[in-house]
Design brief:
The structure is a single chain. The protein is an alpha/beta fold. It is 39% helix and 18% strand. The two termini are 28 Å apart.
Amino acid sequence: MQEPRYKRIVLKLSGEALAGSGGYGIDHQTLVSISQQVAEVTEKRVEVAIVVGGGNIWRGVAGSAQGMDRATADYMGMLATEINALALQDALEKQGLEIRVMTAIEMKEIAEPYIRRRAIRHLEKGRVVIFSAGTGNPYFSTDTAAALRSAEIEAEVILMAKKVDGVYDSDPRQNPNAIKYTRLDYMDLINQGLGVMDSTAASLCMDNKIPIIVFDLTERGNILRAVMGETIGTYVGR
């Protein structure tokens, strides 16, 4: 039986991905699909951590652009990630998985505080860990949180779940002639501004040699395919 290529992964879910086709809020069918795919991965004894965004509810950058204090807007975005994390926790538990939500902002009634060693221990025991509230600091994106947590728990790869099947030189939804990249270097993300993740996150991944796979979440089974080492989406690394 084929063994997974990666034994410990970080799955980065944007808030927009949880919204499904609606673009706002949480889509139930999308939650079910994601939770079923994560369950398939855990059956391979892969340790799964998830970093979830909050853009389906609130985007701090958008609030700041409208005149709101940037730090306040970012903290609101962190609270939005908590809502998504709890919804995801519920969906995953319905698949029979044991889940721990760990938050960078203390709210002990609903989630554990993030402690690196405890997170690693949860993973070693086969629990899925959901990291919420980003890094706990304003001015940093959840992409940066994904890169930081990946480095801290020594994840072997970041799976960036998108609504497109990889990285293109322009938006394929607007440009039918957009060219898809199958492989990129970290510096390509930084220098070309390809929109996969911000430069801080890309630099963290480069410094810690964490590969990134950008793939289409809407195609069922892609999370497992990426974990098994199949060529899908766009691979970013050395």
